[in-house]
Amino acid sequence: MLRLLLLGDIGLFFIAFFLSNVDSFSETLTIEIITSTVLFVFIMQLSFLGLGLYKSKIREKLWGILRRLLIASAISYILLTIFGQLTGNPYLHTDFVLTACFISFISTAIFRLLLFKFNVLGFAKRNILVLGSGQRALVIETRMRREVDRQGYNLIGFVPMGGDINKEIAEEHIVILSTSLVQFVLQNQIHEIVVATDERRGTLPIDELFACKIRGVSVTEILDFIENETGQIAVNLIYPSWVIYSQGFTSSNDLRATFDRLFNSGLAIVLFILTWPFMLLAAFAIKIEDGIDAPILYWQERIGFNGKVFKIVKFRSMTLDAECDGAKWAEENDTRVTKVGRFIRKYRLDELPQIYNILTADMGFVGPRPERPEFVDRLKVNIPYYSARHTVKSGLTGWAQLKYAYGATEEDAMEKLKYDLYYIKHRSFMMDLLILIQTAEVVLFGRGR
């Protein structure tokens, strides 16, 4: 679905630019025309990506998606107009760009309406059958029950297996096989079988699974299924052999480490140049609210790469006596947060001083958010594999920050760890770039943590 959406948008962007410059395209194609077209498509694609329009689990109704499309088109118009004015490119004239962006907005909105609402092109969902009806299978039933979680598949039901510890699934979702597994799969056009039994030894119908596999039916382990569908790793279901034999979790070589260091440092300098006026305003606002003698910055110990303790720096967003009773989790509507603090937190302005931590190599731009030592000691005991977060460098933003709402409990820490482990397994420069671009959506819509 996402590939179709991506390719469809690219085609529509090309058509929009062609229609806005139709006279130019009737002439001989020049390098300037070609580069202008590619630049338009690239900027539009980047804006759509940054506004979350290619997220597989976008939790927006139609009007919300239209709002994102409009903002992305407006951002593209501004960027392309500025570039056109600076370079004097005749094919990026204000009127041409405005027409192209407007056509792009209308056409991509119609494309999404047809694709998602009326299933044009017959984009049918996969039919899924789950082997198991116990505790492991229950994760699919309870944590993936919303329509938005099942955009890519239809859940046919759960087949009870001998290895199930407890029968947890509701009776109406249970499938009792009156024929062989192979016959049921063929008769019901099952595309994928998810193995979710609590105990596998001596309980799985290996011969029938083999017969299904050679007939083109996918057979997926529940951990891989959850990972593919949700972008997280189910920590409570992990067993060591899955981690050992699973693809991913690759280490960084010296070249990658050097490249990351240069990229993070360069981007930190650019970010400082772009944001220092906002940082100055934030500092003045803190002083005005709390008095001339009140500190602007707040230094706090955090656990980073390989368990190293470092001091993170932020704009102070809480009252001066916020931790007079000791370290506490920050809550979503924390009464300790000042008026200025609430605003700068919402738009992530309080995090900007961490440019310093990036330049000193204590952090990178992308990675698991570093946590306080007082909390880490407890979380390592209560949450399995929590220390795995420290095998990569901490980040200013991360996969968990994009995917999970504000967290202030150990249960929230567990949920964020699922996304952090997914990031650690799949991390790459392209994934880092994707997270950075999508962070723009978090900031623009005031979803900062």
Automatic annotation (TrEMBL):
Give the chief site where it resides: membrane
Q: Which residues form the Bacterial sugar transferase domain?
A: 261-444
Record keywords: Membrane, Transferase, Transmembrane, Transmembrane helix
Membrane topology term? Multi-pass membrane protein
Q: Which family does it belong to?
A: Belongs to the bacterial sugar transferase family.
Q: Sorted alphabetically, which PANTHER family does this protein's record hold?
A: COLANIC BIOSYNTHESIS UDP-GLUCOSE LIPID CARRIER TRANSFERASE, UDP-GLUCOSE:UNDECAPRENYL-PHOSPHATE GLUCOSE-1-PHOSPHATE TRANSFERASE
Query: Which protein are we looking at?
Result: TIGR03013 family PEP-CTERM/XrtA system glycosyltransferase
Species source reads: Thalassotalea fonticola
